[in-house]
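Predict structure. Chain length: 839.
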Amino acid sequence: ARKARAADGRAAAAEEKANKALARAEAAEASEQRLLTLQRRTKEAAGRREELEVAAATAAATAVAAGASVSAPKSKASGVATRQSVLGKSKQTVKDEGVDPALAKARASAVREAAQDLEREKAAAAKAASDAKRLQRKAVEAEEASAAARAISAPPYLRGLFIASRAFVCASPEAAAEAEALAKELGSLGYPSSTRPDGVDAAPARAKSAAAVVVHASADGDAGCQTEVAAAVAAGRRVVALREGPPPSWLGPGTIAVGPAGGVKAVVKKLGPPATLLERIPANSIAAIAGAGAGPDLMGLAGLTSLRLTDASPAIVDALIDVLKERTCTIRSLLLPGCGPDVAVRIASAAFACASCQSLSFGGASLPLGEIRKQGESLKALDLTADAGAEGIGLRDAEIAALRAILGEGDAKFGANVTKLVLPPLLSASQTRKVVEAIGCRALPSINGVPASMSVKEGASPYSLDVAGTPCGVPGLVTLSGAVTKLAKGDVATLRFLALGETALGPKGGIALAEILRDGSCAGLERLSLPGAGLAAEGVEAVCAALPPKLLALDLGSNGCGDQGAKAVGEALKRCANLKRIGLAANELSEVGARTLAPFIRDHASLEELHVTGNRVGDRGCSALAMAVRSTNAPIVKLALNENFNITAGACKSLAQCIASSRTLQELDLSKVMIGAEGAKALAAGLSESPALRVLELGSCKLRADGAKFIGEALVRNLSLERLGLSRNSLGDKGVFELVAAGLQGSRSLRDLDLRHNSIGPEGAKRLGAMLERKNFVLKNLELAGNKLDASTESKLVARAASLRTRPSALGVPRKAPTVSKIVEGDENQEGMNIEVPP
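Prediction complete.
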C-alpha cells in the first residue's frame, strides 16, 4: 500500500510538472501575440505621426498665405518667440501700410491659432515616438521571454548545454518561408531549430540561445539579421553561411561557408552530431561540454573526456567518427559495447587518429591507443588485460579486428616488433593465436612471462622451466607449446622440470597442457608442479592422462579436483611406475576420494611421499590410506595428513599400526588434526614400536596434559624419533611435568622438540631445565616461543639445550640416521612437498 501511495504521489508530481510546462508554453505563445499587437500599434502610431506632421505643414502654409511668414518652431521657447515676432511684424505692417486694424487683428488671431495647432501636433508626434520606443522595448522583452520559454521546453540535453535549439535560421522577412522550411528540415534530421517569428524585426534572444546560426543568403543588408548574428557571435555561437564563395565580412572571421549545392546534409555536417548521439551522453558529461568554453562546441564535443555509447547504429557511428576527426575533440576514453568487427575497424581507425583518445573498448579489453601511439614502431611490450576479465571474454572478434587495424595493417605495422605480450589468463588458445596474428608480430612473442624459446648452454644440466606465480594461463601455454616444439626439433635438450603453480590455467589450460605433455620433448619430464593452477577435475583428468611415463614428482595441490581428481591420480600411478611424490593438498578430497586412491597406492612400487594436506578424508579415508601405506611394497617415507579437520581419534589405531609396522615411513604430519588425548594414547602404542619414524608433527591436536603423558611414555621406548612437534596443544606446566616424567627425560633419540604456544610458565621451564641438566643429553633444539616465559628464561633454556652436555657412558647411543633438516617456525603447518630429484 505504501508503494502504491508513493507511486500515486510520483504520478501526481509528474502531472503537475507537465501542467506547469504546458502553462509556460501557453504564456510564451501569449507573449508572442502581445509582441505582434505592440508592433501593430507602433506602426499605427507612426502613421498618425505622419498625418499630424502633414496637418501642421498645411496650417503653416495657410498662415503664410494670410500674410504671415512662420517657420515651424523646434521648441516651446522658439514657438513663443516666433509668435511675438509675427505679432510685431503685423503691427508694423498695419502702421506702415495703413491696414485696417480689425483686419490686422483677425490676421494675428489666425496666426496664433495656427501656431497653437502646430504645437499640439508636435506634442502628439513626440508622444507617438515615445509610445513607439516603449512598444519596441516591450517587443524585445516579449522576444526574450519567448526564447526563454523555448529553452525551458527544450530536450534535456539542450537544457544541460544552456541552449534552446541546435540552430537558428537567420533570413530577411522576404525569405521567411524559406527559413521556416529549412528549420523544419533540420529538426527532422535531429537538429531542433528555430527562426524569427512573424512580425518581428529581429530575434537576437533566439539567435544567441541556439548552438549555431545558419545565415540565409537573403540576410545581406537586413538590419535585423545583423542584430541576430551580432548577438550570436557575442555568445560564442558558430556561424554557418549558406552561400558560394567567402562569407561577407559582417558575419565575422570565424564564419563557415556552405554552398547551396550541398543542401541540408552539408549544413548538418557543420552543426555537430545529431540529437540521437547527444541524447545518449550522461548529464554530467553534458555539463562538462557546456562549461568547456564561451559556448558549447558540439563539433568536437570539447570538454567531454569519457564517452560510453550502447547504440552502434550506422548514424551514431558516422556521427562519432565525425566528432573524433575534429581538432577540438577531447575524448580520452571511448566505450562502445556490442560492435561488430567491421564497425570496430572504423571506430578504431578514427580513434587512433584522434590525438586525445587514449583507450578504446568494445565492452571488454581496453586497447591502449595512447601507449601504442606514443611508442610507434618501437613498441616492444603490449598489455591487453585491462578490463578484459580473467576468462578473456573482453578479447573477442571486435577487439581483434581493431588490433589488426591499428597494429597489423597499414604502412607502419606498429605490432611487428612486439616481443612481450600480456593477455587474460583464461583466454582460449584459439583466441590467443588470433590476437598474435592480428598484432602482426614477426615471431612468436613471450606471452604472460613464458619465454618464446628455450636454449641450453653446452655442458648445462637438463632444461628446467619455472614460471610459477606468473599470469601464464592458457595464452602462456601457447608460447610454451611453440617453445617446446622448437626444443624438440633442435634436439638440444629434454625438458626435465616444469613449474606452473599459481598460473591460473583453469580447466581449459589443463587440456592445453596435456597436449604439450604429449610432445616428444616432454618425454623425459621428471617433475611437474601445478599447485594452485585452478585445473579443477576436468583439467586434472586431462593432465594425468598425458603424463610421461618417466615422471618422478607430481604436485596437484589446491586445484579443487575433488574425488574425481583422486581417481585420475590413481590411474596416473598405474601408468607412471617411477612416480615417487604426489601432492594432493587442498583438493576437496573426501572419504570417497581417499578410499578410491588407497588401492593404487597399495599396488604402486615406487611411491615415497603422499601429501593430502587440507582435505576432509575423515576417519575412514585416513584409515584406508594408512592401511595402503602399511601394505604397499613402495618405500613410502612421508605421509602428510595435516589440516584434515574431520579426522578424529577413531583413525589413530590404523595410523598406529601403520607406523609400528612400516620400516620406511620416516615422517608423519598430523598437525591440526583433532585427535585429542584419546588419539594420542592410540598413536603412542604405535610410536613405541616404530622402527623408522623420525618426524612426528602433532601441533594443534588438542592433546593437553593427558595426551602429553601418553606421548612421553612412548618416547622412552622409541629409538628412532628425532623431531616431535607439540605446539599449540595447551599443555601448560602440568603437561610439561607429565611429558618429562613419562619419558622425555629418558628419550635416547629425540633431538628437536617444539613446545611453542603452550602456556608454559616458570615452573614448567624449571622442570625442563632440570631435565636438560641431569637427565636428557640428546635433545639439541628446543622451541619455546609464545609461552608465559620472559625472554631471559626462554633464551637460557634454548641455549642450554643447544650446548654440548656430558652424556653418561651408560646412556645408549641410537644408530646413526639421515639428518633431518631443521624446520623453521610454522613448518609443522606448511603445505607442499620436497621435490628435489637426484640428477
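Summary: The radius of gyration is 50 Å.
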